[in-house]
Amino acid sequence: xxxxxxxxxxxxxxxxxxxxxxxxxxxxxxxxxxxxxxxxxxxxxxxxxxxxxxxxxxxxxxxxxxxxxxxxxxxxxxxxxxxxxxxxxxxxxxxxxxxxxxxxxxxxxxxxxxxxxxxxxxxxxxxxxxxxxxxxxxxxxxxxxxxxxxxxxxxxxxxxxxxxxxxxxxxxxxxxxxxxxxxxxxxxxxxxxxxxxxxxxxxxxxxxxxxxxxxxxxxxxxxxxxxxxxxxxxxxxxxxxxxxxxxxxxxxxxxxxxxxxxxxxxxxxxxxxxxxxxxxxxxxxxxxxxxxxxxxxxxxxxxxxxxxxxxxxxxxxxxxxxxxxxxxxxxxxxxxxxxxxxxxxxxxxxxxxxxxxxxxxxxxxxxxxxxxxxxxxxxxxxxxxxxxxxxxxxxxxxxxxxxxxxxxxxxxxxxxxxxxxxxxxxxxxxxxxxxxxxxxxxxxxxxxxxxxxxxxxxxxxxxxxxxxxxxxxxxxxxxxxxxxxxxxxxxxxxxxxxxxxxxxxxxxxxxxxxxxxxxxxxxxxxxxxxxxxxxxxxxxxxxxxxxxxxxxxxxxxxxxxxxxxxxxxxxxxxxxxxxxxxxxxxxxxxxxxxxxxxxxxxxxxxxxxxxxxxxxxxxxxxxxxxxxxxxxxxxxxxxxxxxxxxxxxxxxxxxxxxxxxxxxxxxxxxxxxxxxxxxxxxxxxxxxxxxxxxxxxxxxxxxxxxxxxxxxxxxxxxxxxxxxxxxxxxxxxxxxxxxxxxxxxxxxxxxxxxxxxxxxxxxxxxxxxxxxxxxxxxxxxxxxxxxxxxxxxxxxxxxxxxxxxxxxxxxxxxxxxxxxxxxxxxxxxxxxxxxxxxxxxxxxxxxxxxxxxxxxxxxxxxxxxxxxxxxxxxxxxxxxxxxxxxxxxxxxxxxxxxxxxxxxxxxxxxxxxxxxxxxxxxxxxxxxxxxxxxxxx
Length: 937
Description:
This is TonB-dependent receptor. Helix content is 5%, strand content 52%.
């Protein structure tokens, strides 16, 4: 029998038709005379199955063909009532049915139910014989039918109302769960910290780091609104019948590039339980005048409280009084050992391929370890999955380009970035005649592949390489390189648990090629390589508990150095230090526990383990004696893979937030850590030729703990952020070196090393204005950093065993970053930085011995170089904002050190005619103008 169109049923068709109320109340039971049917369907199209039941039952079926398209059914039944057969074949679909009393008409319904009588208490609660109200609604009448008022029914819509779930007459639930994922339509990446509100209800949820959300809603009509920084506000109308999913595909906000903000979520600084964290987006450096017009998120980070460097041009970063090797710097989860170019003046990251960085200087997430001071978690962009696009710049020193290439629309993309420079003219302009005829160049490249397999799986793979070549003397060429490769699989196990599997490899190398006039030519090389495996999970146990747990492991392979003759005429003796190997692992678990609406606690435990491995040899020294050639007791040989020494212990992570008011919170945290790798350097600041050393039989791991306490306040609808945070840090077994130590190519470097204790404390103040024509931040830090090396033996003591300031101890540090937008196309920017001069050691006298003059030096770091201050200004000129253009562009014109301040980088002393003279060197002693052209398409 032919089927019939559902055009007659327009009054209660699927949500694609006009909406009005869902008809009547409960379906009656079919009487005993209902026709029976028999059939076996094996992956049969749903339409064919429906037509077969229509033929056997003699009924007329009404439906829309499009409802049955692409649906198959597998079922079997013998002499079953028609209604029972329909329940089986429609079970996996979103279709229900209604059979008329005369049994000859069957209406298929999308999502909905048809009710042919009203419940007894529809017009008011029914009462029993003595006037009591019933305590519950009869199960058969739940869920209640949904009605739309005239305003909802007659509203003109740009988007259709979305039906969620399938109505079920047997359900007794009064609310249903709506879940899904928020996705950026331009990049295809998940949107975290998106606020999803239910209009007319005091109900809101926030998406997690993977863009996932959940809501509990009563059945019926609802309007959802979604908003986040950098995302265009959106609304979705839904009608919910049962549990279901809804993915939100949202556009980027057109105003997002106009803002200078550090936090992506408006109130996260007050609401989170984390202390001492910062978030910087790459776009933020667009309107900040930096040296030679280069965008640089690491230089921006140094303007924030608690983060600094030893001086202008220093490649390392010091966080809260910690040494430069105490920072874990990650690029897409893989470590990068030296993230800078050209003596630290430029970052080694393509700014157009970089999305941003999360900095943890107080509370460190339980998944991270291996460093005492901080974590810099740098993220690269996911490519555009919709269309080919790109961004680049041409400046006085570098050219940058990043392309975003869709591979499979809405699923996968490729980001390819490259930048290069030839910076010889900078050396010629520096305040040092010896550098005038030298050269330097660098380049870096990155490739990022992102593939979203389905709603539950996505893969990210990154490859990165950078290299620097520079010659600061006529006979030596220095070079160093970073390389890494990583792959990450994000998988949603179920509605409560997500997991991540990560594998990565990182490599850092440096070398020197010496070509002198005599027969002393040589090639020198050093390298460190690590391979990491991490498996972590996040489980939302309930509304109060979120668990993070997993395991991570690393394998280190270090070439401590080799020196070979360069050419057959070289008389240099070949030297090769034994390779070092080690294994590091950790297991961790953390719980974010919502104790109450005011109190949020984040607790975690991490157990770290380290094993130094052979092959190689290790010296032992007499107990209670200094380590030198005279106290060597034995030399122990270890075979390949043999354990030389193990270290390890628990690491505690505790932090909490308490709301004093909805926009004012107090936070506190405590954490301790182990660090098993160290840098060896006797320079004042970080050098590209610093080496990394693994803990072993004679060098113990560094350990430390930090406690912090702070107040956080937002004003004027989160436009202003104010924070005041204090910290205290204690460190043990930190490394320093004996005066005149020979560190490189030393087979027994432990005889040159001292291990002592350190302490640091400080107060950090930050005021930010995030929106409006005038925006920026003011940061101030008062901090102190001290070290102490004491021993019973004078050769292992520094400053008589007393605490002394570290090389990077700068008590006062002020940064003012501001941007004023004159019009939509023109803006001006300014930076002002003022810092206390860092400590130095001065000669304080001379003496004569055996007819020779000698210099007598002060205690280490007793004096300071002059204070540092600098003013930068910039003008940003954007092209017109027409939508249909080949490329959108803007110009950046800036002057670095506009006052021409001769800030000393270092102070050194020379002896001329028997007189000691003090000299100073500066990196940029004059104003440095630049103009950069930026484009985006």
